[in-house]
């Protein structure tokens, strides 16, 4: 088309482009830059090529952390998605209960990450924490500082407590958009509670569920603050996720090149997995 | 199929109704005969949907009882009443095929699969959906979706009544004709008890043998289309049915004649009841003859709507509408005459019989 | 004057509007008539500037306005849904476009009161829209569109969500309201009946194409093609395919319709004959009327009229008669086709009658 009317529009988006360039593209390029060079921090760089990447991909430490991440995300999704749906289904659809439930649900989402970590760190302590002390008193041998299993349980419970609300709110939004006539028709057709869920509620929710799964996956795969605050990656390395390891590598060991290579691999993995989720779920959606 | 009795049913949406105006449904006492085709016709807020929801069990009435074939069902749930309902907007299970949609109500009730298959196939034939049985329901057009909704009701042999809540709202005009005539054929062949709620007079009159006209929470007239057209019991019925509605004008009655301004109109008979109070003469535009003789009018506007013309005129200072045939001409010095067969008399808005 | 020149709109692979050219005059009422998805809304969006055509151009008063966004075009729209500001009074709702334009208070007041009087809203000016009936809510939206004094007012099925009777009342008033302004009105509807009541001009739409544009009653009486005739018929148009042989249209079943004089010269081949339901009658309408025997399927009675659905050969017809005609289903009856009122279409669906020169 030979019209000039919309060329001005490009100028309008220029500030945003610049902002994105400074905040995302340039740091990313810096990371790429580090990942192919070796430096000791004195602004002297040596070309390293793909060396760092090879080292990362051959390191057990990386793959172990990666395994922990995958297990963690899987557990989170398996718990939070059904639990979120279940809570959303049981929330009131009208009356005074609606705002009460919504506020209760939104509360955990309003608390900063590190505060959540701190809360649970204290909550779970066996000497002064309500949870830790109670479990101890009940005869459980609970100690997230020494026991890897207890540490995992603590981190998972904390994440479920923090993020299930998001799934609930998304599902609830999907549920309330279903017209009443559907429920009336289902009653008339003699549908069971399960049939209503399976053939009306679930199909009507599947778009928001897609968003919920994607968000929860990406977020849980990038988990950092909470385990960092609560367990610091321990005991041993048992709760050292990729993100924690990355920080250890970069800040703790000042291994900038390797850390840069690792963050690029990390980034690519998240992209790839998100894309797989998205494609699988939209393909399923389209096929129906 | 069943006979449905509404025994003195009243309904208020608020918790403590005091006066009449708190009731969405003031009092309905009426029987829907087994196998009848009924329409509930009225403007929004007249209580027709409230009544339908009471019959279907989506709403429990504040007073009165509901009987199906003499059995009290007032407190039964929707499932237990065995009714079918078609809603304004198509309700379909969009992840299922057309076949599975129809099978759904049967499978929910644990009907053995061979019987399900037989009934579903029958219903597919009945509704003309047979060639799309294997299709996913979501890809279909609005009229096909409404047929699925209807089919889910027809498929059950134990259905007491089929209820329709403005089912043609989202259907294009051409498809309305097709669906309506199919519905009528289904009714004739299988004799379902059908109750059809609508604000559209054409739909109500063409569908039903008996039309129940409702206004402000009450039934104002029940009758065949012809009765409602020719002998509206209330001026509201005269106005609401017919397009344009009935011409209603205040008159003074003396014996067999009515005076309107300087004109005297011969009545078909002498009013039987007293003619005190506000007396009005009602005549439908179809019975107003426009020609060279009669009472003078001045024409304000002629609407040519193809198959006939609607003439809007001024008669003794009041608006009057007349219908003129497609090929008839409008005279230069227009005059009107009233066909005696179409004259009705109203005292305080209710029709007065005339005799002799 | 609004002019669309060879406008096409494609979205993805779907062609929503196909090569539409249309000229609308100031002070005219133009109906877009067509079924759901025929392109009425798409066309209005192009006229308003909410969408940009894929190809072709839009002109307003001799200026190319293609791509000029809606904010700069002085356009008003009324939708099927009643769209008002719920927290404002009816007065403020109507005044809102004037407030945005920074009109002085005295003039705002005058214009609002005028529009309210025109739409019979004067008693409700202090109420909020949600406390009004559907009809009054839509009147408020209409008043707002009118007070804006837009050069183009687009109404997208504005009466579809109203009760039948309210629709009838508002429909009767609309031409008068439209005539009171010098604006171009465009009114989309699916109902042929509504187009006829509104009068003005009508453009029939089918699958994104305008099949005919002209004075409403002309398009109704003399459609250029079969698609237009079908779009503009409610009850549906009756059709039958007949073979012309000399001075008659013939069907094997024994029907023989005389060829109208002005069509005497057309070739001897197959034609689709179309006629409106009220031109099929139970009593002989004229000596030249042709009797056919058809089987009754369903009879619908409205009190003033009867619609008799008939099966003839392999087609379904509807007969519209005044009064009450009750027939038993499956009964065979004799009905009459009036050759003075038939429309003849060739194999391509074009009218075989000499083209009408219509002043659009």
Automatic annotation (TrEMBL), chain A:
Domain ABC transmembrane type-1 as annotated: residue spans: 66-277
Compartments, record wording: Cell membrane
SUPFAM superfamilies: MetI-like
Gene Ontology CC terms: plasma membrane
One Pfam family recorded for the sequence: BPD_transp_1
Topology in the lipid bilayer: Multi-pass membrane protein
Name listed for the protein in its UniProt record: Glycerol transport system permease protein
Natural source organism: Mesorhizobium tianshanense
UniProtKB/TrEMBL annotation, chain B:
Subcellular location: Cell inner membrane
Main localization category: membrane
A GO molecular function held by the record: ABC-type ferric iron transporter activity
Transmembrane spans: none
Highest taxon above the source species: Bacteria
Record's keyword annotation contains Membrane: yes
GO CC, alphabetical: ATP-binding cassette (ABC) transporter complex, substrate-binding subunit-containing
Keyword annotations from UniProtKB, A to Z: ATP-binding, Cell membrane, Membrane, Nucleotide-binding, Transport
Domain ABC transporter: 4-241
The keyword Cell membrane is annotated on this UniProt entry: yes
Record-linked InterPro entries: AAA+_ATPase, ABC_transporter-like_ATP-bd, ABC_transpr_FbpC, ABC_transpr_MalK/UgpC-like, Mo/tungstate-bd_C_term_dom, NA-bd_OB-fold, OB_MalK-like, P-loop_NTPase
Membrane topology: Peripheral membrane protein
Family named by the database record: Belongs to the ABC transporter superfamily.
Protein name, as recorded: Glycerol transport system ATP-binding protein
From TrEMBL, chain C:
MF GO annotations: ABC-type ferric iron transporter activity; ATP binding; ATP hydrolysis activity
PANTHER family, sorted: MALTODEXTRIN IMPORT ATP-BINDING PROTEIN MSMX, OSMOPROTECTIVE COMPOUNDS UPTAKE ATP-BINDING PROTEIN GGTA
InterPro entries the record matches: AAA+_ATPase, ABC_transporter-like_ATP-bd, ABC_transpr_FbpC, ABC_transpr_MalK/UgpC-like, Mo/tungstate-bd_C_term_dom, NA-bd_OB-fold, P-loop_NTPase
Domain ABC transporter residue range list: 2-232
Name of the protein in its database record: Glycerol transport system ATP-binding protein
GO cellular component: ATP-binding cassette (ABC) transporter complex, substrate-binding subunit-containing
Pfam families to which the protein is assigned, alphabetical: ABC_tran
Keywords in alphabetical order: ATP-binding, Cell membrane, Membrane, Nucleotide-binding, Transport
Family in the record: Belongs to the ABC transporter superfamily.
Lineage: superkingdom: Bacteria
């Amino acid at each position: 088309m030979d019209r000039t009317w919309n060329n001005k529009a490009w100028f309008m988006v220029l500030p945003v482009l610049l902002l994105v360039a400074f905040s995302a593209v340039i740091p990313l390029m810096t990371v790429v830059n580090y990942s192919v060079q070796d430096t000791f921090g004195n602004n002297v760089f040596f070309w390293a090529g793909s060396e760092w990447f090879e080292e990362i991909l051959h390191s057990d430490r990386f793959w172990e952390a990666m395994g922990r991440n995958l297990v963690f995300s899987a557990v989170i999704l398996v718990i939070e998605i059904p639990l979120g749906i279940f809570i959303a289904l049981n929330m009131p659809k009208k009356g005074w209960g609606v705002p009460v439930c919504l506020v209760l649900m939104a509360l955990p989402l309003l608390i900063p990450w590190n505060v959540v970590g701190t809360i649970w760190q204290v909550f779970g302590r066996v000497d002064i924490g309500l949870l830790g002390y109670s479990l101890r008193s009940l005869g459980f041998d609970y100690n997230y500082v020494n026991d890897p299993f207890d540490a995992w349980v603590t981190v998972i419970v904390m994440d479920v407590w923090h993020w299930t609300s998001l799934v609930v709110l998304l599902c609830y939004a999907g549920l309330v958009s279903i017209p009443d006539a559907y429920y009336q028709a289902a009653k008339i057709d003699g549908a069971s509670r399960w049939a209503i869920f399976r053939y009306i509620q679930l199909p009507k929710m599947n778009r928001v569920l897609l968003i919920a799964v994607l968000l929860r996956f990406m977020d849980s795969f990038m988990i950092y603050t909470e385990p960092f605050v609560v367990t610091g990656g321990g005991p041993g390395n048992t709760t050292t996720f990729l993100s924690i390891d990355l920080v250890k590598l970069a800040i703790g060991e000042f291994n900038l090149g390797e850390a840069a290579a690792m963050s690029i691999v990390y980034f690519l993995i998240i992209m790839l997995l998100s894309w797989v989720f998205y494609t699988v779920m939209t393909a399923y959606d389209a096929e129906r | 199929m069943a006979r449905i009795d509404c025994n003195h049913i009243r309904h208020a949406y608020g918790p403590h109704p005091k006066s009449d105006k708190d009731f969405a449904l003031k009092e309905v006492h009426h029987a829907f005969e087994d196998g009848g085709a009924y329409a509930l016709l009225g403007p929004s807020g007249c209580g027709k949907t409230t009544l339908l929801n009471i019959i279907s069990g989506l709403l429990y009435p504040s007073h009165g009882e509901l009987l199906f074939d003499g059995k009290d069902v007032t407190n039964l749930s929707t499932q237990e009443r065995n009714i079918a309902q078609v809603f304004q907007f198509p309700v379909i299970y969009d992840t299922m095929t057309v076949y599975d949609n129809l099978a759904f109500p049967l499978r929910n009730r644990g009907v053995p699969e061979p019987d399900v298959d037989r009934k579903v196939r029958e219903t597919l034939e009945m509704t003309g959906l047979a060639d799309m049985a294997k299709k996913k329901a979501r890809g279909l057009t609005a009229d096909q979706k409404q047929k699925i909704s209807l089919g889910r009701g027809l498929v059950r042999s134990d259905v007491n009544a089929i209820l329709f809540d403005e089912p043609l709202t989202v259907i294009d005009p051409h498809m309305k004709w097709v669906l309506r005539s199919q519905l009528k054929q289904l009714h004739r062949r299988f004799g379902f008890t059908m109750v059809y709620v609508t604000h559209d007079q054409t739909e109500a009159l063409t569908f039903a043998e008996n039309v129940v006209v409702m206004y402000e929470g009450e039934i104002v007239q029940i009758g065949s289309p012809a009765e409602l057209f020719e002998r509206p019991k209330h001026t509201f019925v005269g106005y609401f049915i017919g397009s344009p509605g009935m011409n209603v004008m205040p008159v003074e009655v003396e014996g067999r004649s009515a005076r309107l301004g300087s004109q005297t109109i011969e009545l078909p008979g002498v009013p039987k009841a007293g003619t005190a109070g506000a007396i009005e003469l009602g005549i439908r535009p179809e019975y107003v003859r426009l020609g060279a003789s009669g009472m003078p009018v001045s024409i304000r506007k002629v609407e040519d709507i193809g198959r006939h013309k609607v003439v809007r005129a001024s008669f003794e200072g009041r608006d009057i509408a007349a219908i003129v045939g497609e090929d008839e001409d409008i005279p230069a010095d227009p005059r009107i005459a009233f066909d005696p067969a179409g004259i009705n008399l109203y005292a305080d808005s209710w029709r007065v019989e005339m005799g002799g | 004057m609004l002019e669309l020149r060879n406008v096409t709109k494609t979205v993805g692979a779907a062609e929503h509007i196909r090569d539409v050219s249309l000229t609308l005059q100031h002070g005219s009422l133009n109906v877009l008539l067509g079924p759901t998805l025929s392109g009425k809304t798409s066309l209005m969006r192009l006229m308003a500037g909410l969408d940009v055509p894929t190809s072709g151009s839009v002109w307003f008063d001799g200026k190319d306005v293609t791509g000029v966004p809606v904010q700069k075009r002085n356009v008003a729209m009324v939708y099927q849904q009643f769209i008002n500001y719920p927290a404002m009074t009816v007065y403020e709702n109507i005044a809102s476009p004037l407030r945005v334009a920074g009109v002085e208070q005295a003039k705002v007041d005058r214009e609002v009161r005028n529009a309210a009087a025109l739409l019979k809203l004067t008693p409700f000016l202090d109420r909020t829209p949600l406390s009004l009936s559907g009809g009054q809510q839509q009147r408020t939206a209409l008043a707002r569109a009118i007070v804006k004094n837009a050069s183009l007012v687009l109404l997208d099925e504005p009466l579809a969500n109203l009760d039948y009777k309210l629709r009838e009342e508002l429909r009767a008033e609309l031409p008068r309201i439209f005539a009171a302004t010098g604006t171009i009105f465009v009114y989309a509807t699916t109902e042929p009946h509504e187009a006829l009541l509104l009068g003005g001009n009508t453009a029939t739409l089918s699958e994104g194409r305008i099949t005919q544009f002209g004075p409403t009653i002309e398009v109704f009486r003399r459609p250029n093609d079969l698609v237009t005739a079908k779009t503009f018929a409610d009850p549906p148009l009756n059709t039958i395919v007949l073979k012309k042989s000399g001075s008659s249209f013939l069907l094997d079943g024994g029907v023989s319709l005389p060829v109208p004089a002005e069509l005497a010269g057309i070739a001897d081949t197959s034609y689709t004959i179309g006629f409106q339901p009220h031109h099929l009658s139970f009593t002989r309408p004229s000596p030249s009327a042709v009797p056919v025997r058809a089987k009754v399927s369903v009879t619908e009675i409205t009190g003033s009229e009867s619609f008799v659905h008939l099966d003839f050969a392999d087609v379904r017809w509807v007969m519209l008669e005044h009064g009450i005609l009750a027939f038993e289903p499956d009964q065979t009856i004799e009905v009459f086709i009036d050759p003075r009122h038939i429309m003849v279409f060739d194999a391509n669906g074009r009218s075989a009658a000499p083209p009408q020169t219509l002043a659009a």
